[in-house]
Amino acid sequence: MSNTTSTTAAPTTLRVQGMDCGGCERKVESALTRLSHVEHVSASSVTGSVRLTAPPGKTLQRAEIESTINALGYQVIDESVATPGAKESAPWWRTPKGRLVLVSGALLALAWALKFAWPSLGTWPFVAATVVGLVPIVQRAGQALKMGNPFTIEMLMSIAALGALAINAAAEAAVVVFLFAVGEMLEGVAAAQARRSISALSQLTPSTARLLEQGEPREVAAASLVPGQRVQVRPGDRLPCDGSIISGHSSIDESPVNGESVPREKAEGEAVFAGTVNLDGVLEVEVTRSAENNTIARVIQLVEEAQAAKAPVARFIDRFAFYYMPAVVGVALLVAVVPPLVSTMLWSESIYRALALLLIACPCALVISTPAAVAAGLSVGARHGLLMKGGAVLEQLGKLKRVALDKTGTLTAGTPAVTEVESLAADGSAADVLRLAAALEQGASHPLAIAISDYARQQMGEKIPIVQGARALAGQGVAGQVEGRELILVSPRYLQRFSQRSDEVEARIATLEAQGKSLAVLIEGERTLGLIALRDEPREDALRGLQALERLGVQAIMLSGDNARSVAVIAERLGIEAEGELMPEDKAQRVRQWQAQGLGPIGKVGDGINDAPALAAAEVGIAMGSGTDVALETADAALLKNRVSGIAEMIALSRATMRNVKTNVALALGFKALFLVSTALGITGMWVAVMADTGATVLVTLNALHLLRYRFNDIGA
Ligand SMILES: Nc1ncnc2c1ncn2[C@@H]1O[C@H](COP(=O)(O)OP(=O)(O)OP(=O)(O)O)[C@@H](O)[C@H]1O
Ligand SMILES: [Zn+2]
Fold first, then answer.
1. How many angstroms is it from 675 CA to the middle of ligand 1?
2. Where are the beta strands (DSSP E) in 540-693?
3. Which residues have a catalytic role annotated?
C-alpha cells in the first residue's frame, strides 16, 4: 500500500481480502459511500473485490479508500500481484473464522465438563468461553460503529451476548457466540466453494510449454509466452496458450474450456485455446495471446466480475437488511421496557425475551441466501460454456418469454458450402464468375464471403485477382473493382436496385432459393454476370435446442438477413416461425415492437458480427461463437460451445438458480418470523431461537452449495 495520495480513474476494482459474508460487504460499502469522492460502491465477498466509481468531476483517492478498508479490518491486496483465479482458498480450519470456531468450541466443551466435575465453579467457565468468542465480534462492531454504521450483525450479537451475561445466562451466551461463529464460518465456506469452482479453471493451463527455437523444443514457463512465438504440443498434452495451428492436425477436446463434449478435428490455420487437450497429433502452434489475455483467463475474469455484480434480488435484500436492523433493535427495546411497566412481568424476564429476540433477529441466513446461490449458478454455467455477465443477466434469463435467433451462424453451422456457380451472361464462364466473386470477397468476413473465397482457392489455386476499393454493403453484399471492372456481389433481393432482372434470371433464382440456398449475384453495371448458390445446414442440435426451448415455454423466432424463401425452407425444417430479408436495424426494430406489445422480456441470439443493434435492444443479448472476441465482449451472455441447446440450458439454469434463491429467502424469513413471534410472546426461549437461526443458516448454505451440482440433462437438450 502506498502512502501518497494517488488518484485513480473511475471505475476501479480493488482486491480485498478478509470479507466473507454479506455483513462484511455492507460494512465496506457503507463506510466507503461516506467518502466524498466515491459515488457508487459494490463489495463482493464472493470474489473478494470492491468496485468503485467516482462522482462526475471527481477522482477516487486511492490512499484514503485503502486506509478506510484497512481500518475495518480487511486488507487491500496489490492488484498487480493478484491474478484472476489465483486467490488463496485455505481450508476452513485455517481461516480466522474457522480458528475461532475451533477455539470457542473447545472452550465451550471444557466449560460443560467443568460444570459437571466442579459445580462449585459456577458459571465462570462459560463467561470465559463467551468473552473469548466475543472479542473479535465486539471489535468488528466497534470498527463499523466508528465508520458511522451502528446497525451491524456484530452489534446485535454483542448487545445480546453481553446482555445475556448480565442476566446471568452465561451458558446460553457461550453457546450463542459459538453458533454465531459456526454460521459465519459456513458463509465463508459457501463463498470459497463457489470461487474455487471457477478458479479451478485456471489450473487447466499447464505451467510449462515446449517453445520451439530453430526447430528445437525447450521447456519454458507457459506464462512467459508472447504472441508470435511457436510451441510444440504433443498428443495428450494440454494446450499452453491460445494460438493458431501452423502445422499438423489433431482432434482437440475443448470440453474443459467450453463444455463441448465432442472433440473437434482441427487443422492448419485453425484457432486453439489454452487448457484444451490435444488428443492425437503433434501440433506446431503459433501463440496468439499472452497468458493473461487468453480465453480461459478472460472467462475467469468475466465470471469473477459477474459474481461481484449483484443481482437485483441481492440488492433488494441488502436494502431490506439496512432497514430491518434498526427496526429489530426498536422492537427489542419495546419488548424489554413495556411489559414490566404495564404488567407484573419481572424486568429480568422481559430483558431476557428482548435479548432472545435480538439474537434470532440476526439476518445471517437471509443475507447469505442470494449471493451464494447466484455465485453458484454463474460458476455452474461457466463450467458448461455458458457465460453470463452477472447476476442481473442470470435473473433475467429465466424470465424470457421470447427468443429471437439469427439464421446464419446461429441456427446453421455458419460454414456454407458452394453448390452452384453459374454464368448468366452469354459471353462469360462459370470460372470467371467464381474468380471475380472470390476477388471481391477477399477482405470480407461474412460466412458467405469466407465460403466463396475458400471454394475458389480450392478450385483455382492462387489465381484470384486483387480487388481495389472493396467496400461492404452491410446486409446486402460487397462492391469493388477487379481487373478494372466495377463489380457488385449482392443478395438477389437488391438486384433491381443495381441492374435489370430478366424473367429467366428471376426463375433461376426462385428455383435455387426454394431449395433453401443463399444466393450471391454478380453484377457489372446493368448486366447480371452470374450467380453463386450456397447451402448452409442447420446445426446438428438446432432442432433439439429449439424443442427444449419450447418445453420451457419460450417462443423461438428466427430473424434473418437472408432471402425469404431459403429462410422459410430452413424454418420449416426446424419448425419455427421466421422472417427473412431483414436488415440489422430491422431486427432491432422487431425486438422493440415485441417489447412494446408486452411480449418480452426478449432474448436475442446472434453470432455477434452484424447484429449488435438487435443484441443491444433485447433484454438479454446472447452471443454464439467459441472464443471469438466479439462473442465474449459484446453481449450480456455468450455460448462458448457452438450449440443451440445452450440457450435452453442457460434458461433452465437461471430458473433453477432463482428457485434456489426463493427457497432460501423463504426458509430464512420463515424461520425468522416464526421464532420472532414465539420469542416475543415468551413461548420459546433463547436456546430454541439460536438453534433455529443456525439451522436456517446451515440449510441455506447447503441449498446454495447443492446448486453447484446442477445437472443439465433433465432439460433433454
Ligand atoms: N460479403 C457478402 N457476400 C455475399 N453476400 C453477402 C455478403 N454480406 C451480406 N450478403 C448478403 O446479404 C444478406 C444479409 O446479410 P446479413 O449479414 O444481414 O444476414 P446473414 O448473416 O446472412 O443472415 P442472419 O441474419 O440469419 O445471420 C446475406 O444473406 C447475403 O445474401
Ligand atoms: Zn462477516
1. 63
2. 555-559, 577-579, 602-606, 620-624, 637-639
3. 406
